[in-house]
Amino acid sequence: MGIVGGLGVRLQRLIFGETSGSNPVERSGPPAPDVDPAALGSSPVARQARAAAAERTVHSGGGKALGLRSPQMLAVRHGVPRELLRAQKEGHLTRIPEGVRLAPKFNERARQAAEYKASVREQGEMWKVGYGDYELDVLAAPPERRRDPFQLLGMERRLARQLEGMLERGRQGPDGAPRPVVAVDFGGMYGLTFLRLAAHFADRIDRGELVLAVSNLGFRLDDALASVGKGLNELSKSEAEVIEAQRHRVQYLHADAEELLDAQVTLPNGEPLTLGGNVDVLHEDMAICHGHRNDVDLAFLGDALSDKGVCFLGSTSTHFGRGDEALRKEAHQRGMENLAARATRVPVGREKYAVFARDTREADVAPL
Questions:
Q1: Which helix (H) or strand (E) holds 280?
Q2: Does residue 183 sit in helix, strand or coil?
Q3: Cβ atoms within 10 A of the Cβ of 286, count?
Q4: Which residues, listed in sequence order, are joined to residue 213 by a DSSP beta bridge?
Q5: Could you tell me if 24 and 16 are in contact, meaning their C-beta atoms sit under 8 angstroms apart?
Q6: How far is CA 113 from the centre of its chain?
Q7: What three-state secondary structure class fits 130?
Q8: b vs e for 78-103, b when ≥16 Cβ sit within 10 Å of the residue's Cβ?
Q9: What CA–CA distance (Å, rounded) separates 155 from 192?
């Protein structure tokens, strides 16, 4: 065969596997999971994965080039954990966040999260304390008494000041054209605080300068209003009045942290705006603290922020929930690290909230 021929055969075996006649034979072992390159977004991993997918060809012998340059192998080679690839194949992830550190048993935790989400969406969502009412400040300060149902207190005032600063500085879309400031209350149920902010900023919302949205897993506002005073629903009459007066200025979404990236709000001109990379103010409190896969979900929340976005995270630790508590706590800590890799943590002293900002000059955490 000669030296050149021998090298050629060995190279063929290295690239395509052992051959029998003209048909490549796949190597033994579990098959690599199929990965949709589009689910990797626009990252360098995604670009290389898509390029590799385009290069794959069927050879004249009838076999297919094996996986040294397949999207899944490129993803693994560039640091994507196999657990994420497996979770995507099993349908627990539709996209893969870049550069995340995972806690153990991710796939087990991802299945638990998927089961819980399906249960909530089938049965409906209602929490006794989950009214989206944030009267405590970002600092651990004594609560004030609300004298008027529309009065802004504590964290509501801080969010108002954050929004006022962003409205003054303005926002631009990818094309350089002005766009509204976008704020999302993640897991906000009724969104009482955002409804009060809607009253405070009514003119700015009506002029198309500000968009407010509240996300939930399965909460339905009309069903909840119909059950006021029954069972777990202890909403007061004055709070119900706030909802009825301002609900047309707040958009309600069904989305977990991953789905939030593809969720859309409607701009004043009627055009949809995808939230991933466009959220200027993201607020969360007591929503993600029961999560099973916070190592990736906190990364997704970071990916939702705009280039000047600020995140106020109230769930600085986990709370009681189903599943292994130690694992959930470790996953949450990994998630905080993954979020910090996407946005800088801004120190605020005796904090109730952890504050993260893509541009720290945008974060308003000065004393009220």
A1: strand 279-284
A2: strand
A3: 17
A4: 184, 251
A5: yes
A6: 14
A7: coil
A8: bebbebbbbbbbeebbebbbbebebb
A9: 12
15, two tokens:
């690239």
- Over residues 159-178, the pLDDT tens digits come to 999 999 999 999 988 788 89
Predicted pLDDT at 322: 65
Give me the sign of the Cα torsion angle 27, 29, 30, 35: negative
Give the integer Cα–Cα distance in Å for 167 and 184.
Answer: 15
The total of other beta-carbon atoms located within 10 Å of residue 271's CB is 10
Q: What is the dihedral of CA 152, 157, 161, 164, to 10 degrees?
A: -20
Q: pTM surpassing 0.70?
A: yes
pLDDT value at residue 366? 77
Rounded distance between C-alpha atoms, residue 201 and residue 212, angstroms: 10
Residue stretches of the chain with pLDDT short of 50? 4, 7, 9, 11-34, 44-45, 52-66, 128-129, 137-142
Please give the pLDDT value at position 126. Answer: 61
Domains and CATH numbers, the chain: 2-80 (no CATH), 124-362 (3.40.50)
Q: Are 76 and 85 in contact (CB under 8 A)?
A: yes
Amino acid 28 reads S
Which amino acid is residue 1, in one-letter code?
Answer: M
pLDDT at 205: 98
In DSSP terms, which residues pair with 169 in a beta bridge? none
Q: What is the dihedral of CA 109, 111, 115, 118, to 10 degrees?
A: 110
